[in-house]
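Example record

The entry below shows one chain as it appears in the dataset: sequence first, then structure tokens.
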Amino acid sequence: MSTIKIKLVKSPIGKVPKHRKTIKALGFKKLNQVIEKNDTPQIRGMLKQVDYMVEVVE
């Protein structure tokens, strides 16, 4: 299964509580942190919800 690298580029402070929980569920703890996740439809849906706070690093 392929993986994708995701970087948190904007702070979740002051954002919609549901989006903050999504960022936490993805595993982010710090700003500019890069994590690697399996490329599944569930992860893609989470990324679509918070696309203004994260970027996919290729």
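Notes for this example: Residues 17-26 form the longest helix (10 residues). The radius of gyration is 10 Å.
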